[in-house]
Amino acid sequence: MCIRDRYYDEKIPEFEAVVNEYRKVLFQSPYLDFVKDRIGAAAIKSMELSMKAFDDSLIPLMQEENALSTRYSKLIASAKVDWEGEELNLSLLRKYMRHENRKIRKKAWATFSGFFEEHQQEIDEIYDQLVKNRTKQARMLGFDNYIEMGYCRMNRNSYSREEIAELREQIKKVYVPFATKIHENRRKRLGADQLCYYDDCVYFTQGATAPIGTPEEILAGGQKMYSELSEETNAFFQMMMDCELFDVLGRKNKATGGYMTEIPDYGVPFIFANFNGTSGDIDVITHECGHAFQYFISGKDPISDHNRFITMDIAEIHSMSMEFFAEPWMELFFGERGNDYRKMHLEDTIAFIPYGTMVDEFQHIVYGNPDLTPRERRQAWLKLEQEYRPHMDVTGCGFMETGAYWQRQHHIFEMPFYYIDYVLAQLCAFQFKIKMDTNFQEAWGQYMQLCRLSGSGFYPDMLKESGLNIPFEKDCIREIVNELELLYQKM
Ligand SMILES: [Zn+2]
C-alpha cells in the first residue's frame, strides 16, 4: 500500500491543474489532428475525459479527499495487533488467517475482525466524508453524482455504466453458480462441513504452496523459465539481470510493497519487491514481470510511446496472462507441489471475479445514493455478499456479519471504481489460459500482439485485434465458464 504524505496530498491537485492547462492548449492547437494521429484516438479521448472531471475550483476539495484517503491508509498500515504475545501488522497476520490448522486461522480472523470492529466508527466516518466530498466535486461540475465523474477519472473511454451493469448481470446469472461449484470442491478437499469465512483463500489441508528455493534460486528459475518461453522473454529477462533491474531481496529498513515501475531516461522497467518465502515471491516473477515485459517490448519513441495512455483494464491483462503462460514452469519454484500451485492459482482467480464485481457494484450503490447512512451501506454490502458469495458462512465474524468487510479493501477508499478493471482483465487472461491449452504458440502470438498494441487503441478494439472476446458482450461469460469448467475437470 502506498502511503502519501501531506505534501503530496496538497500538491498533486495543484499539479493536476498545470497538466489540465496543457491539455486545454493542446485541444485548441491547430495540430490536434496530427497529435491524434501520433498518440492515438484513445489517448485523446482519455484526455478529454480528464478535462471533463477537473476544474481549478475543485482543488481544495481534492486536497481534502487526498487527506481523507491518507488518513484511512495510515490507520490500516499502522495497525498493530497482538498475536500470541507478538505484535504484528495486518499483512503479517494474513499468514495465520490462511494457516492449515482451522483453529489457528479462526483465531487469527478473530484478531483481524477485532481490529476492524474497534475502528468501525472511525472508518465509517472517513468513508462517509469521502463519499460526500466526491459527490460535492461531481455536482460542482454538473454531474448528478460521482459515478460518471469517477468513470471519467478512470479514463473509461470506450464503455459505459450500462455495459458494466450488463456484465454484472451475467456474472450473477452464469458465473456465480460456477464459482460456487468450484468452492464446493474446495470444501470437500478441506474436509469441512461448511465453508466459513476463515476458510477463504485456503486450498489444501497440508498448507499453502511455498517456493522451495532461496531468492537467488527463484531468480535463476525465472531466468530459465523466460529463456524457454520465447525469444522475446529471454532477451527481456537477460536484460533485467544484466542491468540489475530487480530489487527484490529483503533487507533492513527497506520500504514495503511490490510493484513494477520504469526508469524513463533509460527506457527500462524496474521491479521492486520484498521476497518473504511465500508464493507471493513467484507472483513477482510472473505478474510484475508481465507488466515489465510489456513495457520492454512496447515502443520507445517518446512521442508515440503508448504506455503513457494505457488503461488498467488492458495493463492488467499483460500481467495476469503472464501468470498463466508461466504455469508449465511452476515445478522450478514449487518442486513436487507445482500442480498444487496451478490448482490453487486457477481456483483463486476463479473466486476473484464475483468478489471484484461485488466491490464494483457496492461503489455504484454508494455513489448513486450518496445520502445512505453508514449502516445502510453495510446492509447493502451484506446483501451483495449473499448474491455474489453464497458459499460462505459468515456466522461468528463480527466484521463480516455487520457487512463491514469492504472496509479492508483500500481501493474503495483510495481509487474509486478501479476494481472492475481487474475483473475485465482477469476475464481476458482466462481467455488466453483457455487458448493456450489447445494451442500454446498461437495464444502466445496473440498475447504478443496485445502487448505490442500497448495503449494505442480503445479497450474493445485492441481485444478484437488480439483475438479476444469482449467480456460485456453477449455470451462471453457463458463461453468462458464452459471452457474453464472443462479445464478445471482436467486438473
Ligand atoms: Zn498488476
Describe the structure.
With 491 residues, this protein is mainly alpha-helical. The chain has a domain at 6-153. It is 65% helix and 4% strand. The protein is built from 22 helices and 5 strands. The protein has a 3-stranded mixed β-sheet with strand order 3-5-4, with helices on one face. It has a two-stranded antiparallel sheet with strand order 1-2. Strand 4 and strand 5 (268-272) form a beta hairpin. The two termini are 34 Å apart. The model has no long low-confidence stretch (mean pLDDT 94). Residues 287, 291, 316, 319 line the site of zinc ion.
State which percent range the strand residues make up.
Answer: under 5%
Q: Specify the overall morphology.
A: globular
Order of helices and strands: HHHHEEHHHHHHHEEEHHHHHHHHHHH
- Structural class category: mainly alpha
Tell me the span between the first and last alpha carbons: 34 Å
Number of helices: 22
Observed structural traits:
single chain; 491 residues; mainly alpha; two-stranded antiparallel sheet; 5 strands; binds zinc ion
